[in-house]
Amino acid sequence: MKKLSKLLLVIVVVALALPTMWGCTDRSTRLRVFNWDYFMHPEVFGLFEDYMLEEHGERVRVRATSFSSNEVVYREIAENRRDRDIVVPSDYMVARLRAGGYIQQLDADLIASELAIHQAAGQVSGTDFRVLLRNYIYDGANTFDEGLLYSVPFLWGTLGIMFNRDTYAPDSVRSWSHLFEAAGNIFMKEDQVRDNYTAAMLYSFSAELRHRSEGLTNFSNPAYIELMTAIFNNFEAGANSFWNTADFTHHANFTDPFAQATTVLRNLRARQGATVYWEMDWGMFDMQEERLLANAHKGLAWSTDAGFVMNENPYAPVADMLYYVVPEEGSNLWINNLVIPTRAGNPRLANKFIAFSLREDIAKLNTLSTGSPAANQEAMENLEYDLRYGDKSERFDGTPDGFKYMLLGIMFPNDSVMERLFIMGDFGDRFHAANIMWTNVMA
Fold first, then answer.
1. Where are the chain's structural domains?
2. CA distance 89 to 339
3. In the CATH scheme, what is the homologous superfamily, with its name and number, of domain 156-333+399-442?
4. If DSSP codes are grouped into helix, strand and coil, which group holds residue 46?
5. Is 30-154+336-381 a domain of CATH 3.40.50.300?
6. How far apart are CA 29 and CA 13, in angstroms?
7. By C-alpha distance, which of 268, 87, 236, 407 is closest to 244?
8. Same CATH topology for 30-154+336-381 and 156-333+399-442?
9. Alpha-carbon distance 91 to 149, whole Å?
10. Cα 239-242-244 angle, rounded to 5 deg
11. How many Å separate Cα 314 from the centre of its chain?
12. In Å, how far are 228, 294, 303, 305 from 419, measured between CA atoms?
């Protein structure tokens, strides 16, 4: 009887443990990815599953969910402690997550060993992912993750103006003033405090930036770099702040940059003859499908908005009636990165996926889908050649004059564009002040 009781006890304990055991087994083969909408070609996950089975004999299932802003990432990872294996935050958010201890160091040895497999297959040129990056992106990423110990750049791009080329001649839209002084329908980024702030400050200092760059001819001028660095990184307020003590030739001093941006954005909302639409992702589709074209329109856009609707994405036809420009005064270089949260359930698989994303075929697939250049510079050089001169150049047959080179400029920015791009810093202890600014803008 005692033996029977002990046997029943063992059966009960094992039965209670089985769901946990099964859950662990299932979890060990699942990769949870938290990414921006439309920011990875839908075939990539299946290709990774196939690779893991064929190369490592491991059955893997990728589960992807999307987010709409970096602030959502912070809430999910830092505050709600959600279980994610791969997250794709932008530059400044990497710095914030790293400082808070919410992301873990990459397994450099594991990534290198995976890259060695891909190198043997002819898909990457080396096993050190840093060597694969374009110099601008490597240098930029070091500003928010020194040594690239916690993040790998994934896709990157610019902030600019997208507009209807049937209404505005491409050469007629060059400055931030062509957005903030426009009539008709104007698209701005809803709840994207950072991007609206950046555009407002660049417009506000347009004349000063022209002066400091010697008429937009010398973007290496220390005076130009000083002001652009302040716009993107100096958010201090008060009598002793940069903004109140700087020697401006074409701008009045002020004590709070957020107050300055608030004025510019509120003036845009109140502008006669203009209607502002606040959107996150649907604006690019409205501009593509001509839903809101009762009046001429322009919009604040990430290059990936423009590249996505103008390229071979799997969700919509090519919008060749649109155009995109990086304003001549300068703009933002954004870098989205692959990171692994501290609480990730499967960091081993996450590191393998990071290496997989650097493959040339995967980089090309994501770039053609999103219109954003991938981190693998050699892959981008090969893709650009194919689009300019090779088999893929046929996709531009029948498009308007100049469309091909404009789109290639979005996907592969040249040095003349890169030299006037700056990475946005974290608002830091003025984060709440920035949110108050936004509340005042929308009030």
1. 30-154+336-381, 156-333+399-442
2. 8
3. Periplasmic binding protein-like II (3.40.190.10)
4. helix
5. no
6. 25
7. 236
8. yes
9. 14
10. 40
11. 19
12. 11, 37, 16, 22
Element (DSSP H or E) covering residue 53: helix 43-56
What predicted TM-score, i.e. pTM, was given to this entire model? 0.89
**Six-digit token pair at 107?**
């397994």
33 within 8 A of 41, measured Cβ to Cβ: no
Residue closest to 58 by CA, chosen among 360, 348, 338, 359: 348
Residue 215 burial (CB < 10 Å; 0-12/13-18/19+)? Answer: exposed
Indicate the residue type of 155. Answer: L
Phi-psi region of 180 (alpha: psi -120 to 50; beta: other; left: phi over 0): alpha
Amino acid (one-letter) located at 258? F
Hunting for tokens 């507009």 — which residue is that?
Answer: 163
- In tens digits, the chain (443 residues) has pLDDT values of 434 444 444 344 434 443 333 334 444 489 999 998 878 888 999 999 999 999 999 999 999 999 888 888 999 888 877 789 999 999 999 999 999 999 999 999 999 999 999 999 999 999 999 999 999 999 999 999 999 999 999 999 999 999 988 888 888 999 999 999 988 888 898 888 999 999 999 999 999 999 999 999 999 999 999 999 999 999 999 999 999 999 999 999 999 999 999 999 999 998 878 888 887 766 677 776 655 555 557 899 999 888 888 886 666 667 788 899 999 999 999 999 999 999 999 999 999 999 999 999 999 999 988 889 998 999 999 999 999 999 888 888 888 889 999 999 999 999 999 999 999 999 989 989 999 999 999 88
The span from the CA of 111 to the CA of 129, in Å, is 8
- Give the whole-angstrom CA distance, residue 218 versus residue 221: 6
Q: Which residues of 22-53 are buried (b: 16+ CB within 10 A; e: fewer)?
A: eeeeeeeebbbbbbbebbbbeebbebbbebbe
Q: What is the spatial distance between Cα 336 and Cα 344, in angstroms, rounded to a whole number?
A: 19
DSSP states of 375-438 as a string? SBHHHHHHHHHHHHTSGGGGGGTTPPTTHHHHHHHHHS--HHHHTTEE-----GGGHHHHHHHH
* DSSP-based three-state secondary structure for 10: helix
The phi, psi pair for 187, rounded to 5°, reads -100, 130
